[in-house]
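Quiz preparation item.
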């Protein structure tokens, strides 16, 4: 038998439902409108994320497939199709890791770097400006802070899915 929720618990549950639904909508619109922002460069938001990850100084020598999947928080299977298309389009190259020949490293090509720095980034910056219209620097900072807190909690759930199910069964 389910326990009766207090008014605070009911309000928290209703707000949580609204929050997660809005996050879902934001993710869907980010994919749709973000892809539209960079489609003239032949990119999608997934490809934009891969190029962004590979453009970081710590990724200059490349990233392993597993490492990139973990960084982007996607499955290897979801990443495989994106990598294949980006390799075909010349934005990245996949090479054996010299330290472990069984592993593959993903690197941004010169062409991919040009697409990222010269063509896509100015459009991405314009997209950010439009999407964050009327957000103050403080608003952006606070939003990032709370999203990072939420992400930390969700990562804990991801590492221990059996604990989350057990907790839900106790409620």
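Solution:
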């Amino acid at each position: 038998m389910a326990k009766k929720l207090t008014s605070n618990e009911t309000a928290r549950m209703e707000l949580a439902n609204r929050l997660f639904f809005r996050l879902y909508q934001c993710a869907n619109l980010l994919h749709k409108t973000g892809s539209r922002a960079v489609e003239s460069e032949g990119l999608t938001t997934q490809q934009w994320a891969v190029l962004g990850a590979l453009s970081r100084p710590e990724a200059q020598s490349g990233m392993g497939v597993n490492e990139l999947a973990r960084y982007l928080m996607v499955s290897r299977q979801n990443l495989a199709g994106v990598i294949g298309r980006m390799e075909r389009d010349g934005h990245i190259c996949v090479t054996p890791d010299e330290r472990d020949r069984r592993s593959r490293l993903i690197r941004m090509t010169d062409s991919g770097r040009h697409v990222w720095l010269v063509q896509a980034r100015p459009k991405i910056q314009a997209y950010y400006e439009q999407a964050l219209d009327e957000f103050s620097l403080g608003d952006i900072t606070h939003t990032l802070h709370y999203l990072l807190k939420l992400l930390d909690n969700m990562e804990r759930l991801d590492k221990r899915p059996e604990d989350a199910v057990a907790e839900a069964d106790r409620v």
